[in-house]
Amino acid sequence: MEKASEITEDDLKNGEKELQNITDEFTSEVDNIRDEKEKEVMEI
Question: In Å, how far from its chain's centre is CA 6?
């Protein structure tokens, strides 16, 4: 038996891809901030 769903599989996959893109974007931003802070700390 299949479970009744509010969204289609395509919508689910698209939502997962969008969420992954947002996660990757923010991970990259955090990595850049970390690298900048690391350089700043090493200068002191």
Answer: 24
Tokens standing for residue 21? 């893109």
* pTM of this prediction exceeds 0.85: no
CA atoms lying within 13 Å on the CB side of residue 30: 6
The span from the CA of 41 to the CA of 20, in Å, is: 31
pLDDT digits (tens, 9 = 90+) for 6-40: 899 999 999 999 999 999 999 999 999 999 999 99
15 contact partners, CB below 8 Å, separation of at least 6: 7
Strand, coil or helix: 1: coil
